[in-house]
Amino acid sequence: MEEQVLSFSKYSLNYKLHWILLHKTFGFYLVISCAVYHLQLAKEIYDNRVALATPSIIEKQSCVVPLLMDHH
Question: What is the extent of the structural domain holding 16?
Fold first, then answer.
């Protein structure tokens, strides 16, 4: 289960970076505020040795902040 939690942690980070890079290309930033929360939660689960059933359970709780214009 530890390996699964670490895998989810990496997945969250890659997911955030993927969307930031994708939308920055079009002049937008997609801010996925919960991605950071997910990383922290995954770390806490790992530290407490609590079994994480499946990444999809937490992903369903993710929230996406509206796109912000990049004025630079």
Answer: 2-69
